[in-house]
Structure formats: structure tokens, C-alpha cells
Amino acid sequence: MQKHPKTRRARSGGAPAAPAGPNVVVGGGGAVPTDKSLAFLSRLATEFTAVLSLPDLLEHIMRVLREETGFDSCTLALIDERSPEVLIIKAASGLREGFRGLAVPKDQGLHGVVMRTGEPLFIPDMQADPRVYRRDNRIRSGIYVPLSVRRRQIGVLSAHRERAGAFARADLDVLTVVGRYLTGAVEVARLHDQLKDLAATDSLTGLANRRCFFERFTVEIARSRRKDRPVTVVLLDLNGFKAVNDAHGHAKGDEVLIWVGEAITKAIRSYDLAARFGGDEFILMLPETTKEQAATVLNRLHHLRVPVPDPRGVVADLSFSWGVAVFPVDGDDPERLLQVADHRLYSMKERFYDGETPA
């Protein structure tokens, strides 16, 4: 029976016997970059600061890594935040460029070994190793290093060559150093994306906030003007919300606002925009929508009742008042359209408190 070549696992002090090479000094504390390696990392640092978009940044780094090292292929797999049991190939350069977007089970294949052990791997002959998850006849040898943040594995950085046994310890050390920098870059970029989301999101409801709405609305008005298409804005207000806060406290009021945000999101289309405008006011942007077409959404909201128990345990309902304005019929700029919508909202609320039921 033919045995497959043993995978050489690179532990501290137990790496395979291979020359360290001129670019890296191997010491007791791990890989220490020297002149050529430092020049490479300097170029990487430039890439990190020049690109803030995480996908673009990762692609840049894979390209630079391949160009500077002469690897035939470089890939980066990160845990999918929506499906933590899966790794996604987020960036790839060279022979494995077509693998970008591929989902790899976190517990299978060579990626699975690295994720499970948290240690790098040498694979002298990938064609002979049965654990390879997806075989590529163009690739013969590979090295894999883990990416970890505070002892938590977040992904795997790998490099490949067309020849068997083509990697030396120096290659693994370079990849390990790059992996450390890459981990920091991924975390910074993700933090940047999270901060952007926070800046655009209402912290209570998860809807867009007022600032984000105005930015998107201004862009949509400009687009609609160029294409001569309508766009509708709707201001929404909860009738009787103050009484909920007075009777049940602000914690219950917050629960109601969260429920309302979710209900509004379900009532609109995926390309519409809902935002919390402030307090118990919400605002909708409905692109490519006339006043008559907006009536469909408003009809759903009109029949939506927000259940709120009163102090006696009896469930009361909250309803909406609204004001609608349509570009370009009611105005040619965001400020004018919001003025019109606000005026119509105020008129409807007056009718509500006068005892009239919205049609």
C-alpha cells in the first residue's frame, strides 16, 4: 500500500530542516524580518494605509505578496461572520485566482487542520495528500499559516507553487510575518467598516439614522433628476407614543420603537430606505415611486397596529400618521420635499387628535 508523504507541521523549535535563506533570520522568538523582508513589509504598510475598503485591501496584499515572493499562488480565507462554520476565500492571486469566493468548511481539508491546531503547515506534495479539500492539478506544494486575534482563529493565509517540495523554512517565516501584519490590517479594516456602520445606523432600531438618510436622499434626488424619475419621501409618526412612555416607562417605549422599526422594514421593498428621524418619527425614501404607488406601502402601515399593554394589562394599539411628498411634483430638492411632507404629517396628526380616522 502506497503511503502519502507526511505533512510537516511547523512547530516552534520543530520546523523542517530547510535553509533559512537571506531574507529572514530564524530565532527563538520566531521569524525576524531582515533587509529584503523589511522592504517587502514596508510596501505592505503602504498598501494598508492607501486602501480602507477591506476587500480591496486584501486583494492588494495578495498581489503584493505574490509579486515580492515569487509564489505561484496566494490565498486568504477568513471565517464567514454570518456562517462561522465556513471559511470564505476572500482574496486570491496567481494560479488560484478563480478560487475567490469559494466556501471551505472550517473543519475540513488543510484549512481545517490549521484552524484546529493553530499551527502552520508545510505540504510537500498536495497531489499525494488525501486531506486536500479541493484538488488543483496545477499546484504541487503549499504552506499554510493561521491568522489569530487574541487566541481566536479568524482565518488562514496560504501560498502555493507548481513544483513539489518547492518551499523552504524561509518561505514559511515570510508568510508568518505577513500573516501577523495581515491580521492587524483585517482587524483595523473591519473596525473601520463597523464604525462606518455605526455612523450611519440608529443604535436602538438598527435603521439608518438621520444623517445617513439625508446623504442617500440627496444622491437619489440627483439620480432621479437625471433620469426624470419620481422618488417619494414619507414622514411617519406614532400616534400616542408619549402616553406609552408616561404609562410604562422608557424601556417599554424603546421596545415599541424596535418593534416598529422591524415592522416598517418588512413593509417596504429591499431597495427602499427606512430611517429613524428622531424620537418616534421615522422616514422612508421610495425610489421610482409615485404618490399612488406609495399608497400601497402606506396601506400596509395603516393596517399595522403596534400592541402595547396598558397598566391594567389591556392591550392597546398605536397607529401611524404620515406625510408624503413626491419629487419633482412637490419640490425639486430634499429640504423642500421634507417641508411638504412635514406639513402634511402635521395636518394628519391634527385630524387624528380631532377624532378622525385616516382614510
Automatic annotation (TrEMBL):
A GO MF term: diguanylate cyclase activity
Domain of life: Bacteria
Biased composition (Basic residues): 1-11
One Pfam family from the record: GGDEF
InterPro entries named among the record's database cross-references: Diguanylate_Cyclase, GAF, GAF-like_dom_sf, GGDEF_dom, Nucleotide_cyclase, Rev_trsase/Diguanyl_cyclase
Residues annotated as domain GGDEF: 229-359
Biased composition (Low complexity): 13-25
Region (Disordered): 1-25
Gene3D superfamilies: 3.30.450.40, 3.30.70.270
Protein name: Sensor domain-containing diguanylate cyclase
Species: Candidatus Segetimicrobium genomatis
